[in-house]
Specification:
Blueprint: H1 22-32, H2 38-49, H3 55-60, H4 63-66, E1 76-79, E2 90-93, H5 97-112, E3 144-149, E4 155-160, H6 162-174, H7 184-195, H8 200-207, H9 223-238
Antiparallel strand pairs: 1-2, 3-4
């Protein structure tokens, strides 16, 4: 008899970033329209929620990663290993229409305001080595080297975009979305795809997890769906 993977518990978890409802995501995007840099901030949200990027990857991704020299958008984006957790390269997919629209809108702003532009017609005249997301001083967001102990007890070094992380986390506080953080994007994406029937293997690929069991920490159990199914099932058995 073939071995089966053990069943893991799907739990909310006290320290997990909030999975946003469609209404909460709409509220966030509406509120960002009133911020100082609305098109940039909207793009940040869609990089998190539409492509499942980590916040440090958002800080690190470059113009050359999202545009071809011709100026066309790259939809199958390769994230270099130096940007990624665990120092392992991966792919993300810029297929979401809202993400593509947000990217086009922000690129237009950068071109109009000449934010890190060149004299070359390639990459729409933008510096291909410049960060996609620029801070208010027209520079990329800084990274800080940190250390953590992995599950094997070994010390690992990693880079963290603390300033950008704080900016995004403060949006939740400012706009009244309790439990919101930059990681809400990846958890919301995973949960919604899971509820649409996407397999665990596909979710592992999309989120670039080395451990297949990690996905259980990302997907929130749809308790309402379970409750409705059980109620219908036992209602029919009693009739």
């Amino acid at each position: 008899m073939a071995n089966r993977r053990p069943i893991k518990r799907l739990t909310e978890g006290k320290n997990k970033a909030k999975v946003l409802t469609p209404a909460e995501l709409k509220k966030l995007l509406h509120a960002l329209a009133l911020t100082r840099n609305p098109k940039r901030n909207r793009l940040i949200v869609w990089l998190l929620f539409g492509a499942g990027l980590r916040i440090t990857e958002v800080a690190c991704i470059r113009i050359q990663d999202v545009l071809w020299p011709s100026g066309n958008l790259v939809t199958d984006v390769r994230i270099p290993a130096k940007y990624c957790k665990g120092n392992k390269a991966g792919h993300v997919f810029f297929y979401a229409r809202q993400l593509q629209q947000a990217l086009e809108a922000y690129l237009t702003v950068r071109i109009q305001k000449k934010l890190r532009t060149t004299n070359s017609p390639e990459y729409r005249g933008l510096d291909p080595f410049s960060p996609l997301i620029l801070s208010e001083n027209r520079q990329g967001y800084s990274l800080k080297l940190k250390k953590r102990r992995d599950k094997h007890g070994e010390i690992r070094e990693y880079w963290a975009a603390d300033t950008l992380q704080e900016l995004v986390t403060n949006w939740g506080k400012k706009f009244g979305i309790t439990g919101f953080s930059s990681h809400s994007g990846r958890r919301t994406l995973a949960t919604r795809l899971s509820r649409k029937g996407v397999s665990e293997e596909m979710l592992q690929t999309l989120l670039r997890h080395e451990d297949p069991d990690t996905i259980y920490d990302y997907v929130d159990l749809d308790t309402k769906f379970v409750r409705d199914v059980l109620e219908r099932m036992y209602k029919q058995s009693n009739e």
